[in-house]
């Protein structure tokens, strides 16, 4: 079954919402510009298999259960595939103090 995409035109958009959105975006740009400073940006990618596990745990009877913590008796369960890659984006100022950091995991 193919779903039709909903297309919006300026007759169906709430005008007051649109004006508020425009003002908020413009305000955010002004604040960012006012607080702008020189920074360094670095990025790295690595592997952290010791903290990643597949939450869909297959139990001995064949059923599957969503596990929110690593089970205590791991020998009785089977885990699915995982992606242990982590990407980090770090932003720091002139004296190497972090101004921001963003980590990307695939769970």
Can you give a write-up of this model?
This protein is α+β, with helices and mostly antiparallel strands and 107 residues long. The protein has a domain at 38-105. It is built from one helix and six strands. The strands form two sheets. Strands 1-5-6 form a three-stranded antiparallel beta sheet, with no helix packed on it. Strands 3-2-4 form a three-stranded antiparallel beta sheet, with no helix packed on it. Strand 2 (56-58) and strand 3 (64-66) form a beta hairpin. The longest helix has 20 residues, at 15-34. The radius of gyration is 23 Å and the shape is flat. The protein starts with 14 loop residues before the first helix and ends with a strand.
The averaged pLDDT comes out at: 81
What is the approximate shape? flat
- Walk across the major sheet and give the strand order: 1-5-6
What is the helix fraction of residues, given as a range?
A: 10-25%
- How far apart are the first and last residues' alpha carbons, in Å? 30 Å
Total beta strands: 6
- Which stretches are poorly predicted, pLDDT < 50 over at least 5 residues? none
The value of Rg in angstroms is: 23 Å
